[in-house]
Amino acid sequence: MGKAAHTAADTAITAAAIAAERRELADLLDALTPGQWDAPSLCAGWRVREVVAHMSMGFRHRTGQVLVELVKARGSLHRMTDRLARRDAAAHSDTALAAFLRTHAHHPWTPPVGGLTSALGHDVVHGLDVTVALGLDRDIPEDRLQILLDAIDPRAFRIFGTDLSGVRLCADDLDWSFGSGAALYGRGQDLLLVAYGRRLPAGRLRGDEVHRFVTA
After folding, report:
1. Per the confidence metrics, is the pTM higher than 0.85?
2. How far is the C-alpha of 189 from the C-alpha of 131, rounded, in Å?
């Protein structure tokens, strides 16, 4: 009984974090200029608008529609999501793309694996793909960040193209580390991006292996 109650409480906390994250991101996106919407993100090949369109894909497309698109992409999840993101980014206004997050703040969508925690990671990481690339100073609330840092799983690294071999992630602002090897220092939210396979602008990370994790 105690374990079930704990699980139910954790589920409620994560669901509330997802809803808050989506609403806050929608408010932030509403304030962007047209030039910022068209600026590059941390996701290679995607502008801010493609990232935001992708974030709400699971809310707006039924499973059957996604499977049809996956067949069209010859089974490639990457090609499928890229095609949908580009199509939806062209089809909807900036205001509509932001509104999709706000109106679906409580949508129960989750990625194929990982449940609600992965859904929170999807929102937080893609939000950082936007804000870090634009140089916007947005702090992820520590409770949300801790959920995601505690859930980092090496089994997912292949999906994101993450290579942390010989590296230990060490947060400057939290009591958290991950891995073993040469220390890579940075804020917890920047190290979360590293764990999700992102390369960051110079100056956000420190360590002997920093060259592996920054943009050229």
Report:
1. yes
2. 12
